[in-house]
Amino acid sequence: VHPNVSQGCQGGCATCSDYNGCLSCKPRLFFVLERIGMKQIGVCLSSCPSGYYGTRYPDINKCAKCKADCDTCFTRNFCTKCKSGFYLYSGKCLEKCPDGLEANNHTMECTSIVHCETSEWSPWSPCMKKGKTCGFKRGNEVRFREIVQHPSARGNPCPATTESRKCIVQRKRCQKEGKGKKNREEKRKKSNKDESKETRQESKGRAARRQNREQRENNNKTQPKKRKAPNKEQDLAPADTAH
């Protein structure tokens, strides 16, 4: 063993040096050089740090540096995240997105342009004027539609979601709410009055019949009973026989 190589290394090193740190790593760990001031120290990690990508070889697994504009990468030529000021597109970091694409400042990626989409128009509303559908000849009717897809930054903006047009209706008078309510109230009172009148008449009729009946009963009690007139034939019959 070389004098600069130590035994019993720590931190996943297979071999190490007091001056240079890890020289080789245990299986499945990645070897990477970290700069500390003017010196580079070898370390062994389970995964590569930001700005590096891992490569596996039969004798050693190493962490290689990504391109300068990549924050993280899968290989040297395929970035997965770009540094500030660059937009990711197909594994590359670009300062400006290609034609037909737009920069998404939230994800820092080049994405497709999305245009506005709306639903179909609703049917026209009834012809109205000042919130009423009667008492006029000319008014307006409206229709609506909804936005089903909002546009992206460079997409076509949404059109109007409401439309209005003039309309003509047959002239008719509006029934005043107060007058209609008054008529209903008068009808109700009249109906109650008629019912009360019929009830009073029925009560008077029953009282008159009861009074007549009581008067007849009183008359029958106060009048003397009439005696039965004698039968003349029966009274004269014995005298004729005696003679």
Provide structural commentary.
With 243 residues, the chain is an alpha+beta fold. Among the domains are: 65 residues, Hormone Receptor, Insulin-like Growth Factor Receptor 1, Chain A domain 2, CATH 2.10.220.10; 38 residues, no CATH class; 52 residues, TSP-1 type 1 repeat, CATH 2.20.100. It has two helices and 17 strands. The strands form eight sheets. A three-stranded antiparallel sheet has the order 1-2-3, with no helix packed on it. The longest helix has 46 residues. It is elongated and about 150 Å long.
CATH architecture designation of the domain at 1-65 = Ribbon
Question: Could you give the order of strands across the largest sheet?
Answer: 1-2-3
Give the overall average pLDDT: 80
CATH topology of the domain at 1-65: Hormone Receptor, Insulin-like Growth Factor Receptor 1, Chain A domain 2
List the uncertain runs: 232-243
Q: Report the β-strand fraction as a percent range.
A: 25-35%
> Radius of gyration over alpha carbons?
57 Å
Structural class: alpha+beta
Query: What is the H-and-E element order?
Result: EEEEEEEEEEEEEEEEEHH
Query: Helix count, per DSSP?
Result: 2
Kindly report the name of the CATH homologous superfamily of the domain at 1-65.
Answer: Hormone Receptor, Insulin-like Growth Factor Receptor 1, Chain A, domain 2
What does the overall shape look like?
Answer: elongated
Question: Helicity level, as a percent range?
Answer: 10-25%
State the CATH class of the domain at 1-65.
Answer: Mainly Beta
What gap, in angstroms, lies between the N and C termini? 195 Å
Number of strand elements: 17
